[in-house]
């Protein structure tokens, strides 16, 4: 794996790939303009949705988010632990009492059947920022994002799909794992990977970093902490998630990513040692378009949809930063809304019909 989180290398050199795409673009100046992310998302959902799926029929084509206010509520998931005696999908039987030992989990290749079992309630520390969390057994950084084997799809050969999948993961690394972006810097590397002809993304990112709003919130795509409020603990971010793909509109390669990121942070105040974990689960769908049919640039992707669910990231602050609430470790302190488990990846993001698109909820653990 190289420093950018890539495993292996494409069978097509970069210069050959880019020349191929440039040649493909030649002579198609009248290609249709890139559809907006919202229009493309709605088209995809309407095409693939069964007619009796009320949840998708009522979907509003805007980037969605829900925020969870992380709480330290001990025992709410005790029932999940009782299942271990009969079924142990997380391989926790025989692990040590602190819940942090045991072999690292294998990469996630499909949606899990349930949430990780409850861990012993042990607060995180500067030396052990993932103690008492299922993330202690997750992989570090890009290694926790599973990339499937490539196959020829749509307009792309197997080698081209392989490269597009790795480039998609590069985008996730640049947007959600880059240390500079976590410290609040502009995600220049991630933005450079997006099709510059995608007008609605240009408008979104221009507004998100100057005047963030509910709709133009940089946290929908990028992980960032305000340096004056919080700073990362160490240089490790734990991740778990997967990438899938299929043929999309006009023969494009449609890639869906579903990844949970766990960020340990401490208050920026001098001498602070209270470690909190901000957890963000993002679903980002991108399209690698046929340059003969869509105006694009070599090596860039187009964003179809993006949404985030966060815990300990602040509740509807609208400031464009994760805002963990330090000093609120008491169980149930200020609890409001439904209780959710931020480590439960067994359900689709906002997958329940009628579930709210935003608002504050209480996390059962952090």
Structure description:
There is one protein chain. By secondary structure, the chain is α/β, with parallel strands linked by helices. It has one domain (14-49, 64-90, 112-363). It is 19% helix and 19% strand. It is globular. The model is unreliable at 1-12, 20-31, 38-101, 330-335 and 352-357 (pLDDT under 50).
Characteristics of this structure?
single chain, 366 residues, alpha/beta, 10-stranded mixed β-sheet, 8 helices, 10 strands, 19% helix, 19% strand, disordered N terminus
Largest sheet: 10 strands, mixed
Number of domains: 1
* Uncertain runs: 1-12, 20-31, 38-101, 330-335, 352-357
Quote the distance from N terminus to C terminus. 30 Å
SSE class? alpha/beta
Shape: globular
Explain the layout of strands and helices.
Elements (H helix, E strand, L loop, with lengths): L13 H12 L11 H12 L5 H4 L7 E6 L7 H5 L56 E2 L4 E2 L11 H19 L2 H4 L5 H5 L6 H10 L21 E3 L5 E10 L5 E15 L7 E14 L13 E10 L27 E2 L19 E4 L3
Parallel strand pairs: 1-8, 1-10, 3-5, 9-10
Antiparallel strand pairs: 2-5, 4-6, 5-6, 6-7, 7-8
Short description:
The chain is α/β, with parallel strands linked by helices. Helices cover 19% and strands 19% of the residues. Strands 1, 2, 3, 4, 5, 6, 7, 8, 9 and 10 form a ten-stranded mixed β-sheet that branches.
